[in-house]
Amino acid sequence: MTLSTSLTLNFSYGSNMWREQMERRCPESKLAGVGILRNWRWFINERGVANLIRSEEDKGDMVYGFIYQLNARDEANLDRYEGSPEIYQKVFGIMVEVVAHGDVDVLKIGDTVETLVYMDRNHVTDGKIRQGYIPRMHRVIEDGVREGIPIAYFDKYFRPFVPSKSSYFIQKILAISQAMLSPNDTTEFSD
């Protein structure tokens, strides 16, 4: 693989897999491919956002993500968005297997490439997803499937933390309806 030394390969596994968000945050970035990080597990941490943690080899865990090409300006932008180094720490040298091409033809399927990954090493236990993060994760799932990531991956790793779109909207409607009814409201509904 020939990649300019001024470019960094970033493995994104959370909300930056939503292509539109990544284009806003890092306008010069390019999707170089889809990758798998083996023997790691995706989860929502106690801060309510995506994170990674190593898993035992025999568990067969893996994390799919997008491999982006970043120039120095986009990497600096991503540092700010990820709260690096206070919230997410930059970890260089994480080896990712390329499983699909992206928008630029710089990676070969089957190759293993060295990437930069943002990880929160201080919040490493499962938590409850932030409400505002749910719609972004829905878009991540849509974009991931569009780029060839199996829906079974999202079902196994995302669904325990991210409600389906229909469940999410039903919960929102119920919350709004409940808020509209005052405690003294005696309105009864009938079929």
TrEMBL record:
Pfam families: GGACT. One of its GO terms (molecular function) is gamma-glutamylcyclotransferase activity. SUPFAM superfamilies: Gamma-glutamyl cyclotransferase-like. It comes from the Eukaryota. Keywords: Lyase. Substrate binds at residue 133. InterPro entries: AIG2-like_dom, G-Glutamylcylcotransferase, GGCT-like, GGCT-like_sf. Residues 11-102 form the Gamma-glutamylcyclotransferase AIG2-like domain. Its EC number is 4.3.2.9. The keyword Lyase applies. Coiled coil: none annotated. The keyword Glycosyltransferase does not apply. The active site is at 82 (proton acceptor). PANTHER family: GAMMA-GLUTAMYLCYCLOTRANSFERASE (PTHR12935). This is gamma-glutamylcyclotransferase. It comes from Lentinula raphanica.
